[in-house]
Amino acid sequence: MSVELNHTIVHGRDNRESAEFFAELLGLEIAGEWGPFVAVALSNGVTLDFATAPADKITPQHYAFLVSDEEFEAAYAKIEERGIEHWADPHQQRPGTINHNDGGSGVYFLDPAGHALELITVPYGGWPA
Q1: Using an 8 Å Cβ cutoff, are 63 and 49 in contact?
Q2: Averaged over 26-48, what is the pLDDT?
Q3: d(Cα 100, Cα 92) in Å, to the nearest integer?
Q4: Which residues 6+ apart lie within 8 Å of 124 measured at CB?
């Protein structure tokens, strides 16, 4: 068997709020709840298991997601509709816009817990030849 990522735990101030924010923005479903976790399944079988943690115990992380052009456009429309602060770059120097790195589209924004989320339509370095 090859090594695959199965799940990761994402801390938030409110597990349901963070899971619903993420799922709704990307058109995903809550996959289930068990114990302290609210899980959102990605199309490659990986789940993000959201867990409630005290705000002072949350270390902001970066999560990047490769999405289709259609998924990007739908998510970006929601980002704009909701007035979610966003940037074209990870250093937050280009607010209110997207980038076109590697011939695709990309955007950075924060989730309710302060994690940096990134949506890209082309992997870094472009698609393999």
Answers
A1: no
A2: 97
A3: 15
A4: 101, 102
